[in-house]
Amino acid sequence: MPFLGQDWRSPGWRWVKTEDGWKRCEPFSPALEDGNSQLNDISHTVIITGDDEDEEIYSTEDCEFAAKKRKKDHFRNNTDSQCFYREKWIYVHKESTRERHGYCTLGEAFNRLDFSSAIQDIRRFNYVVKLLQLIAKSQLTSLSGAAQKNYFNILDKIVRKVMEDQYNPRLIKDLLQDLSSTLCILLRGVGKSVLVGNINIWVCRLETVLLWQQQLKNLQINKQVSSGLTLSDLPLHMLNNILYRFSDGWDIITLGQVTPTLYMLSEDRQLWKKLCQYHFAEKQFCRHLILSEKGHIDWKLMYFALQKYYPIKEQYGDTLHFCRHCSILFWKDTGHPCTASDPNTCFMPVSPQHFIDLFKF
């Protein structure tokens, strides 16, 4: 059986410490070899220091420590010469074997699956944000120090992206609200729960989250000026079709605030009835019936009432996938080295909650 990873008898990978945590270097990278040759020249030179015209010459052995230190600084600062994680997948294993030592952690998955780049893809943005929100609610204390750092680094990039692109700020506000509530509870109950890291670090993180919330609160959506065709110029049946394609009630309400015509279409009872039927079962309707003054079912109020008691269906442009044959987690467009005869039958989409469950031990 071929190895899907590195042979367990090998000496191991080469790791470099970066701002996002420890990352693996590509072992025989030409750029790294050029950097090594330049830095190795330091150990073969003679260092001369002048002090009252007296010269002190150090041997190669004396310069070895300084050369190693400069080499470390070179790898930390020169990110162009680093080649991390050519493969964008991770093998999910929970115990040690002869072929694989150790187990996967949430922090390792964050590095290998490249969530920092995933937030730049509009298809994956909502998926990553929902994942961070679930971690903020239940898994924040279980993260290692490296995973915590990666978590807040990714969150910082998300906030910056929203401030620049003004894309879906409501989703980020909900995430920051849940995160700030969790941090307040943890700080009030310090000593009762285990916090990885110094308490001052967590206080600083809470202050940062509150600052992000204030920035998003003061965010002004720029009005785009266009001389071409606008949303208001579309016929009513096309606008209605657009509303029927939304799976989130808040998106329907937000779009209805654009023009009076869209507001009229967004209040359609049939639209909210279809939305309730999409997310909830008929038995759930009977338990939470809400009637209007005219005696009709108020589907709009029912949607938000049912949302408090039952989870809604999640829709994402792109999600992670899990291969049942190889036990590998990956993005579908990047793929993975599958050994199954028919790989497509082994793939299954992974929801954000399922992703967290994979790394619970």
UniProtKB/TrEMBL annotation:
GO terms for biological process: protein ubiquitination. Its main location: nucleus. The keyword Transmembrane does not apply. Gene3D superfamilies: 1.20.1280.50. Keywords: Nucleus, Ubl conjugation pathway. GO terms for cellular component: cytoplasm; nucleus; SCF ubiquitin ligase complex. InterPro entries: F-box-like_dom_sf, FBX25/32. The keyword Lipoprotein does not apply. It is found in: Nucleus. Substrate-recognition component of the SCF (SKP1-CUL1-F-box protein)-type E3 ubiquitin ligase complex. May play a role in accumulation of expanded polyglutamine (polyQ) protein huntingtin (HTT). This is F-box only protein 25. The lineage of its organism: Eukaryota, Metazoa, Chordata, Craniata, Vertebrata.
